[in-house]
Amino acid sequence: MPSVCFYFEVHQPYRLKPYGALQVGRDHEYFDSELNARVLRKVADKCYLPANDSMLRLIERTDNRFRISYAITGVAIEQMKQYAPEVMNSFVRLAKTGAVEFIAETYYHSLAALYDKDEYQAQIDLELDLIRSEFGQTPRVFRNTEFIYNDEIGQFIADLGFDAILIEGADDILDWRSPNFVYRVPERETRLLTKNYRLSDDIAFRFSNRAWREYPLTADKFAKWVHQHSGAGDVINLFMDYETFGEHQWKETGIFEFLEHLPDLLFTHPHWDILTPGQVIERYPALGELSFHRTVSWADEARDISAWRGNAMQQRALAEIYSLGADIKRRNNSHLLALWRRLQTSDHFYYMATKSASDAEVHDYFSPYEGPYDAFIHYMNVLKDLNRSVLGPLEERIPA
Amino acid sequence: MKVLMLGWEYPPHISGGLGTACEGLTTALARRGGIDIDFLVPQLYGEEQAPHMHLLGASGSDANQQAPARIGTPSHGGALSQAIASEPALSTDPILMAAIETIERASSVRIGTIEVPAMLKPYLDTSAYLELLRAGGFDEAAVVQRAQELPSPPRDGSRRSEHTHLLQEDFWAPSVEPAMEVHYGWDLFAEVARYAAAAAQRVRGRKYDIVHAHDWMTFPAGIEIAARAKAPLITHVHSLEYDRAAEGADREIVAVEREGLERATRVIAVSYYTRGLINRIHGTPLDKISVVHNGVYTRATVQAYTEQRESTGPVVLFLGRVTFQKGPEYFVQAAARVLEHVPDAKFVMAGSGDMLPRMRALVESLGIEDAFRFPGFVRGADLERTFSTADVYVMPSVSEPFGIAPLEAMSYDRPVIVSKQSGVSEVLRNALKVDFWDVDKMASQIVALLELPELRRVIVERAREEIRHIHWDAAAEKLIPIYQSVAA
Fold it and tell me: Could you tell me if the ipTM is greater than 0.90?
């Protein structure tokens, strides 16, 4: 009996304000709280609130046979509580249905996995504590920032005790294998759930693309595509940004109607059901080990980490922020620690990417700045101020 | 398809970007094939190289037939002009030579001044004359006294006085048959009108599918010829009088512009910025105006000048006319802010223009004269050296229809900052962009480029890739469908 598994990513970074060289040493407020509030409220109105309503309705209407999973970053939860508390309330209502599973990740949606394993573990622990206290669940399944993954990360997460990890079903990794089965981290029991990127991206990216051969995508058509996998797989993993509903794909595209009808149409085939990741690994055995010869992510055409450290600017910025770690931790100041961690959020580096053509369009879509160069300039100025005014010798520090 | 293009100048005798643009565009069109171009300019000097088309002089000579006419030493040939005439790079510039001639004659005969609007304003102004004279060993006191008789730099928007230049009778006399010599008059409008008449005469009886006129000086000629040949007229706007003089625009020029825009079947603008401006100022409907961005020649090699650098600190460059339009004061204001953060930075303001004395005064009043250099107008090898030894190039133009200099700077692997009020900012991805008035941000961008090698490296590497794609070929690609739709 095959299954569909839904996973949604919910994340909002603390965006930096345009921070010019002349502000260094004078201005210690780095984040654009007005912009961050505006973005969060906009996304809440367009996506979080209506999408949560839809999900709740679907779960109730199907008697909990419709099931979903979320990873909600700590920084997103902080901002929801501050700028749109009603969104948090509706996630709590979803948590109480019993049909929603929460997935762990780093609280700060950072790249710590690649730079500082102690810090990585600390940010995972922070997120686990947050999910426990907000939603009353202890996540058993993990997903790393932007699906960044390699064998080393897999084994590290396995050793932290997680039962499963959600990853990208990259073609060159899967090779002859299908993404529609459960795999295992090499030399560990922890399971791997691989995203079916074709079917996921049909919804997340292509849904409203009029140039697409399959446009318009109806729930009926999509359910048929899923059903075609009957007998040729255990699970179809549909992993995507939650903002797909109402933000990336506007309400006017019919995305909510699509969502509304999809579960019933999936259930028209008697063999198919919908499970959360935790339920998937209970039911289906691992087919074998899946080894990653490179670091994979779910971003850009390349599905690698070039979106965050593909150029010299990104590498410099990342090297610099992580080099501050020891100094920051020595201060034993929770405010300073949180500030440093907010500056680790991967989005800052994503904005600095210099990609060409279609990738650049996606980066531009997300970036609050005029381009990668401005993003780098603002970020480096902030680090300069942090270094000089906050971390510098006491006598050189300028009171805020 | 047979196209008649009307230009005002053609390399190497150019006073601005128009000649270069015409050369690039026609070369790319010829490479595409299928288009036969007659290119008409007021006067040919015999040194033009345009095997890709028929280059016609309105004075009656064709480049392909005419024996090269060497620029002669003026009859009153003074020490300075003789010295410069022996320097090929300089002696090919008719404006410079004419200006020198004027000064030399001024000391013995008279100062000839004519009324010339801003467009034909050469790159020389009073202070540049004086520099030249000093360099030539002339008696400065006498010159200064003479110079006071020279017209002062334009202050308001009315017609600007300028020194005799370009087509002065006895300046050209030694090398050209007097009968062949055509003068379009002392007054620019008379020049434009006579060019129109001469041009119409010159191409009488020839059949054209399209008449394509570049900038307002050729519009009357274009209108006349298109009407006679019953061919559609394309008027191509490289810059508007408004760009050059803002509120002080010359009304007569504006009227000529408008006439050309109204009579055209199609208008071409060099940028969306200019397209919007044409629409706003002249009311030309937007759907009548197509945009064809200018391209630029890519340089095969980056010069070795960098090794000759002497400067101790990093160098920030302004290069262009020092006039209101180019926004030099924003560069100075940004420099003052940069120096607070990068005390050893050096600033070069290369170029001449009516605002140069004010810029010098401003730099002094800000107390940053030690960090500033004003080398005046640079060309040839000096130009290459100036670009090559700069760490950052800034174009803070207040209003720039296109702005080719940033592309030139990029071809030297220099990172550039361009004002958002420029057409070129629309096509460049790998440049920093700033509103010309936002001097804080401009300063911040300069500081960042000086302090962050990674920023410089990524911009330069990607810009190198980018300008390879910004070619005249791309401009020709856009132009051909316009030709086809107009000729149909």
Answer: no
